[in-house]
């Protein structure tokens, strides 16, 4: 019998690198004499006096921090150090601190140059006993690189890295399989057009056939599509885009830079999923509000149809379109259709409530996280419903899926992963003492990226056929602007015959809908507020009703992106997701989030000490001070007051430090610190203004949201 124990072996420090050492101790129980062993006696089947316990101890050495040169060198030695996942972690995250060219040059010129190695520069690589071993190690790394991250070599028009690699292979591994593979990859890239941002998204209006024009949805045409067909086609589009996502595009240090002018083409594969998510959200809103002549019951039927489609997405394990539909139904312009919602049947409202609860922000979106991991590798959806009728329908639809005999993959809502990676990037340092690259941070990031890659693999199980009729209809939809959707929403509500319900039943229905959105908090809809222009376009994310609801956490600083704030009871401004209001205007605004940093707490962690040798501690989080640090949200006053950035502060930070970091995050000149003042928003009519050299951590009010405004001094 074998029993394995692990023991912390401390740290090993070398020039330019720090390693974490773990001792792996394996106990082997064997028969004590040759006769017993020859007869086949196993240790656990023999009495103690006939056995002897032997121990095998091996050392696992994992690099914690190092120079780029040491990290690249470790690609060749990690296997010998029993750090078996190192190559995958490095390849998935190195773009945060190095370019493909820099890594390739180090790998081939410094470590792959056999003439140089003979002169003693490779003396520290004791495990490489010969040139053949060295060549095999480099080949192994290159093979893994091509397998896992071939997109790294897509560098049109000159493809310098691929040509350099090809030159190395011709000289060192002529006529090898890898040489022909690299040649084929080069031809493939050269034959393909450079893919633009919207080239990833099959739903772009630029894909319209000649003569086609954008149009507002025809209710009859939309109703002609069966619910499961719509869900399957949305899933087909989501799967195509999600499978193309390049994992390193999701890294917080990369995704958070997307707003800079020079980065407009950064992370195109992630932008494409954002565009598709918002296209679905806007399509839902347009189909409900786009036709003025609809009667209340007809509009209610369209809402019911979208709830059924969301349920079909749930059966297909498509959490992306599911969330897009729920977000649209919770947007200002749809949520405020109180009379229309009263005509939605009780069973369907309960179905909608159950689907909405999947994306509850309680405990860092624990419900959706657990469900996603539970279903990531399951063959079919695990459907539970507290409503008998809904449970019957769910099981019937699920059985039809099972009868087809085709497994389903899982399409996640990517915003959750983007949020986790943004939080990790904010909370953990890029460099540690001595200017070494903090590779522990990259290991933590890889835990999130590994989940994305697992789900991408699961998507290969889908077997969906495109329905051109629906796809063309979807592409033709003209999306309403924020102002249009709000105006149409007011018109639809004003035209509703409020006498169709008695005052008593009306009050009861308002209470039921309020409880549906707010949990146990009963909410009285506010008086209409005048429409306030928003700096961001889109059909949702309205900046009017204080009853705005949503759970969108994608990139919301771009004009095509949509996000509306989760609703909370107005009586409880401290509750998570509470409504943020403009000063003195009384109108709520959609939170435009920093790459999905809308989560109120960080990802669960194992060891978040960002410095070497630090004791394990919890990651800093938003809205809570712990162990001398926390995360605050800083928005710019004026034109960009709805865009916030997450910033890590410690108990050592003073106003100039925090102000400078906030300016950098908002892509403004960091030298202009003296021109700005930092204030904390206490309530709608109260602010906390900090003196010029105050300690932010100790000076802030920790009993309200950690929301700050950076305002130009008068």
UniProtKB/TrEMBL annotation:
GO terms for cellular component: plasma membrane. Residues 541-554 have a biased composition (Polar residues). Residues 59-190 form the N-terminal Ras-GEF domain. InterPro entries: RA_dom (IPR000159), Ras-like_GEF (IPR008937), Ras-like_Gua-exchang_fac_N (IPR000651), Ras_G-nucl-exch_fac_CS (IPR019804), Ras_GEF_dom_sf (IPR023578), RASGEF_cat_dom (IPR001895), RASGEF_cat_dom_sf (IPR036964), Ubiquitin-like_domsf (IPR029071). Residues 226-495 form the Ras-GEF domain. The keyword Nucleotide-binding does not apply. Residues 576-592 have a biased composition (Low complexity). It comes from the Eukaryota. The keyword Oxidoreductase does not apply. Residues 628-714 form the Ras-associating domain. One of its GO terms (biological process) is Ras protein signal transduction. Residues 524-595 are annotated as: Disordered. Keywords: Guanine-nucleotide releasing factor. GO terms for molecular function: guanyl-nucleotide exchange factor activity. Pfam families: RA (PF00788), RasGEF (PF00617), RasGEF_N (PF00618). This is RGL1 protein. It comes from Calcarius ornatus (Chestnut-collared longspur).
């Amino acid at each position: 019998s074998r029993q394995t124990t692990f023991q912390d072996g401390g740290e090993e420090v070398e020039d330019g690198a720090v390693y974490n050492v773990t001792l792996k101790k394996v106990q082997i129980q064997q028969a004590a004499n040759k006769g017993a062993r020859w007869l086949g006696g196993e240790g656990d089947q023999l009495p103690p006096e006939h056995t002897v316990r032997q121990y095998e101890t091996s050392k696992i050495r994992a690099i914690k921090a190092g120079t780029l040169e040491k990290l690249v060198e470790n690609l060749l030695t990690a296997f010998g150090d029993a750090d078996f996942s190192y190559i995958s972690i490095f390849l998935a995250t190195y773009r945060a601190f190095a370019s493909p060219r820099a890594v390739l040059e180090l790998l081939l010129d410094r470590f792959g140059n056999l003439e140089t190695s003979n002169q003693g520069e490779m003396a520290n690589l004791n495990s490489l006993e010969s040139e053949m071993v060295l060549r095999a190690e480099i080949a192994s790394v290159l093979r893994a690189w091509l397998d896992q991250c071939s997109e790294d070599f897509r560098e049109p028009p000159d493809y310098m890295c691929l040509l350099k690699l090809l030159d190395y292979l011709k000289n060192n591994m002529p006529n090898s399989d890898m040489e022909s593979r690299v040649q084929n990859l080069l031809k493939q890239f050269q034959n393909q057009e450079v893919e633009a941002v919207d080239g990833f998204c099959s739903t772009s209006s630029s894909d319209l056939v000649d003569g086609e024009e954008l149009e507002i949805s025809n209710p009859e045409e939309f109703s002609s599509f069966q619910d499961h067909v719509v869900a399957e086609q949305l899933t087909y589009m989501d799967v195509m885009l999600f499978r193309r996502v390049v994992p390193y595009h999701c890294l917080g240090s990369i995704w958070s830079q997307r707003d800079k002018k020079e980065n407009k083409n950064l992370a195109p594969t992630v932008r494409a999923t954002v565009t598709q998510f918002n296209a679905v959200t806007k399509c839902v809103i347009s189909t409900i509000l786009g036709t003025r002549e609809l009667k209340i019951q007809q509009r209610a039927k369209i809402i019911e149809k979208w709830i059924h489609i969301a349920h079909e997405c749930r059966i297909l394990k498509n959490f992306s379109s599911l969330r897009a539909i729920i977000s649209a139904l919770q947007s200002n312009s749809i949520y405020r259709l109180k009379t229309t919602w009263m005509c939605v049947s009780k069973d369907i409202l309960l179905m909608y409530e159950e689907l909405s609860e999947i994306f509850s922000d309680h405990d860092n979106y624990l419900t959706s996280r657990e469900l996603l991991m539970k279903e990531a590798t399951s063959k079919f959806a695990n459907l539970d419903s507290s409503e008998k009728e809904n449970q019957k329908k769910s099981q019937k639809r699920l059985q039809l899926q099972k009868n087809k005999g085709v497994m389903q993959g899982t399409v996640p809502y990517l915003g959750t992963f983007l949020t986790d990676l943004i939080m990790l990037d904010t909370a953990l340092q890029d460099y540690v003492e001595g200017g070494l690259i903090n590779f522990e941070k990259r290991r933590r990031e890889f835990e999130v990226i590994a989940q994305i890659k697992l789900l991408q693999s699961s998507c290969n199980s889908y077997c969906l056929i495109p329905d051109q009729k629906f796809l063309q209809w979807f592409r033709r939809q003209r999306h309403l602007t924020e102002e249009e959707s709000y105006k149409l929403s007011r018109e639809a509500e004003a035209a509703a015959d409020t006498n169709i319900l008695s005052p008593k039943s009306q009050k009861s229905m308002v209470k039921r809908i309020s409880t549906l959105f707010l949990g146990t908090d009963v909410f009285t809809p506010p008086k209409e507020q005048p429409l306030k222009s928003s700096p961001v376009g889109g059909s949702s994310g309205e900046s009017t009703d204080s009853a705005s609801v949503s759970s969108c956490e994608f990139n919301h600083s771009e004009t095509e992106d949509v996000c509306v704030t989760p609703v909370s009871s107005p009586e409880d401004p401290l509750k998570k997701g509470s409504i943020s209001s403009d000063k003195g205007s009384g109108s709520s605004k959609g939170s435009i989030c920093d790459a999905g940093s809308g989560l109120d707490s960080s990802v669960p962690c194992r060891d978040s000490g960002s410095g070497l040798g630090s004791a394990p501690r919890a990651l800093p989080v938003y809205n809570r001070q712990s162990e001398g640090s926390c995360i605050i949200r800083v928005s710019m006053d004026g034109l960009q007051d709805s865009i916030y950035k997450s910033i890590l502060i410690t108990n050592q930070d003073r106003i100039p430090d925090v102000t400078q970091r906030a300016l950098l995050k908002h892509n403004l000149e960091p030298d202009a610190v003296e021109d700005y003042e930092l204030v904390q928003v206490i309530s709608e009519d109260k602010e906390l203004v900090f003196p010029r050299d105050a300690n932010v951590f100790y000076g802030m009010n920790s009993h309200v949201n950690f929301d700050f405004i950076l305002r130009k001094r008068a």
